[in-house]
């Protein structure tokens, strides 16, 4: 086939030559296109996760807790609504964040960039549809049988597509990369994905059981407990520990994690799965405490930093909240065991779960997310370190109030505790809304340009400017690049100078336009490279 045939004759000669050059040999500049598309894909996952966190998740949680407090009874809200809140938080928020971040960052850890964008967007669409349908079907009880089964199947398909994108044979990494991972983070990631798979299968089995035999959409209490133990200890915890080996280690300047903990943690997580499925809940609680201790030892979270922590652009004391989240994890594991050993204290189970979900998971994400995500989202900067600080303090205070009062109130000894419970809910709601607002503002803010004025040159490819910053395309067209208005495809090797000459425009005119544009995109800090490159390259 004559590959030159796809170059339109109507294009100026310089453009046609550049297309021919592209065909003959790949351009020697790094292509910003895949990174832009990956950032856009990640932004969709993050925005979707924030919506699930704020409305179907937290708002419904607050509603449930106010209902519980008014009636002094943990069974006051419909069980289905409590479970809908839990699924919205675990799958809708945490799951969506984990899938998006994994699709974005795991290929980079393996030395390549994401290529299957169509499949990644399919995961986003299916996962959002599945989790959203489940929530609507359960909360509004509208065709709930179809909703339970349909959503569980769709979530499993989304999971299968994710595995295909990330782990399918032939997705080789950089040359020399080991096919069997050697580091603790990779093993924890693999265990976390296996845990998610088991949790989703359990979810489907429960959905089928309830849809065919149940009178309402609520899962039976024991089945729901098994599902939650799998979701929290086989999926969320290993994922959080796995990503901690990369990001907490780097951001807090810790020593490298202890690799030899991998088999111990693997056996422990497997034991959690087996014991949970066998309904040996006391054994699950013992193992959960043991693997918590092992993970904390392996991650060296409470060891002093050996390098300065990375605090640029965020609330500087966030590192203390990262460590605090691991304290909450210990509290959660101890309360879980206590709830099994002292069944008369009926509030301990809920308090343990809240210490795990809000104290550990949410606090960890609220601390690390604002440091990590903006830079992954095409080199953005966090909108407000102050909002970050406020959300961290509020979440900590709200969680402490909730865990302490829930243990007392639900166990039928609380008077004042019942009054304080809803206060804790509104404090946590405030924290959640500020966190979501901060990330939403960060996303809404135009992408900053991380280069100085002298880097804007005529010998750089036109493709680089318009791909990195698509808003420059109409500006350049208005400044005289008329060919750019007539074609979508731009050759990678055509320089701005060549494009200017072929359209009879002075290159300086275009450079002025670009410099003005980039002057309005200056980052607040020019003291660091975009974190995405820094973090990913250090953790590879
Ligand atoms: C303002 C914040 C929140 C409030 C007010 C809240 C409230 C509640 C309430 C009232 C329950 C019922 C059981 C109990 O009384 O303990 C519950 C259960 C649950 N919550 Fe939350 N929650 C919040 C945040 C979160 C977060 C951030 C997550 C996850 C990351 C989460 C995950 C769960 C789960 C998994 C359950 C168990 C659902 C079930 O029984 O199937 N919650 N929450």
Explain briefly what this protein structure is.
The protein has helices at residues 13-24, 33-71, 79-109, 117-140, 144-167, 184-213, 221-251, 262-278, 281-299, 318-341, 347-376, 385-413, 416-444, 462-468, 472-478, 482-486, 496-502, 507-519, 531-539. It is mainly α and 540 residues long.
Q: Write the element-wise H/E pattern from the N-terminal end onward.
A: HHHHHHHHHHHHHHHHHHH
* DSSP helix fraction: over 70%
List the total number of helices: 19
Overall shape: elongated
Strand content: under 5%
Q: What is the tally of beta strands?
A: 0
- List all distinct small molecules, including ions and cofactors, that are bound in this structure: protoporphyrin IX containing FE
Distance between the first and last residues' Cα: 40 Å
Biggest pleated-sheet summary = none
Mean pLDDT: 92
Low-pLDDT stretches are 529-540
């Amino acid at each position: 086939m004559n590959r030159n045939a796809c170059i339109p004759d109507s294009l100026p000669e310089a453009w046609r030559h550049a297309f021919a050059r592209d065909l003959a040999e790949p351009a020697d500049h790094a292509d910003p296109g895949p990174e832009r598309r990956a950032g856009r894909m990640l932004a969709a996952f993050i925005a979707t996760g924030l919506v699930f966190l704020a409305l179907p998740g937290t708002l419904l949680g607050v509603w449930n807790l106010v209902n519980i407090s008014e009636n002094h009874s943990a069974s006051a809200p419909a069980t289905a609504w409590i479970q809908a809140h839990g699924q919205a938080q675990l799958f809708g928020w945490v799951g969506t964040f984990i899938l998006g971040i994994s699709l974005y960052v795991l290929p980079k850890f393996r030395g390549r960039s994401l290529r299957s964008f169509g499949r990644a967007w399919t995961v986003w669409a299916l996962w959002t549809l599945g989790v959203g349908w489940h929530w609507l079907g359960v909360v509004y009880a509208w065709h709930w049988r179809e909703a339970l089964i349909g959503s569980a199947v769709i979530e499993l398909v989304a999971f299968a597509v994710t595995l295909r994108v990330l782990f399918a044979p032939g997705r080789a990494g950089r040359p020399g990369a080991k096919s069997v991972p050697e580091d603790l983070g990779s093993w924890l990631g693999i265990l976390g994905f296996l845990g998610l798979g088991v949790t989703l299968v359990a979810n489907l089995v429960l959905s089928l059981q309830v849809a065919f035999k149940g009178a309402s959409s609520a899962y039976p209490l024991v089945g729901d407990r098994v599902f939650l133990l799998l979701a929290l200890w086989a999926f969320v915890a290993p994922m959080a520990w796995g990503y901690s080996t990369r990001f907490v280690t780097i951001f807090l300047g810790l020593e490298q994690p202890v690799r030899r903990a991998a088999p111990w943690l693997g056996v422990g997580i497997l034991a959690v799965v087996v014991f949970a499925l066998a309904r040996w809940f006391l054994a699950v609680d013992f193992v959960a405490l043991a693997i918590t201790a092992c993970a904390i030892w392996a991650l060296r979270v409470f060891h002093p930093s050996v390098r300065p922590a990375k605090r640029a652009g965020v609330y500087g004391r966030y590192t203390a909240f990262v460590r605090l989240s691991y304290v909450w994890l210990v509290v959660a594991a101890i309360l879980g065991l206590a709830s099994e050993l002292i069944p008369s204290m009926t509030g301990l189970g809920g308090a343990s779960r809240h210490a795990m979900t809000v104290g550990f998971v949410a606090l960890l994400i609220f601390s690390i997310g604002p440091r990590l995500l903006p830079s992954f989202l095409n080199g953005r900067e966090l909108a407000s370190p102050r909002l970050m600080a406020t959300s961290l303090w509020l979440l900590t205070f709200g969680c402490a109030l909730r865990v302490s009062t829930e243990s007392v109130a639900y166990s039928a000894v609380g008077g004042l505790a019942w009054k304080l419970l809803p206060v804790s809910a509104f404090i946590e709601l405030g924290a959640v809304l500020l966190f979501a607002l901060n990330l939403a503002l960060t996303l809404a803010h135009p992408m900053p340009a991380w280069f100085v004025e002298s880097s804007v040159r005529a010998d750089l490819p036109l493709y680089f400017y318009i791909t990195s910053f698509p808003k420059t395309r109409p500006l350049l067209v208005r400044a005289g690049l008329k060919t750019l208005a007539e074609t979508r495809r731009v050759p990678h090797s055509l320089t701005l100078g060549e494009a200017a000459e072929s359209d009879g425009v002075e290159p300086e005119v275009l450079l002025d336009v670009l410099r003005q544009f980039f002057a309005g995109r200056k980052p607040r800090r020019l003291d660091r490279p975009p974190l995405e490159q820094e973090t990913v390259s250090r953790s590879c």
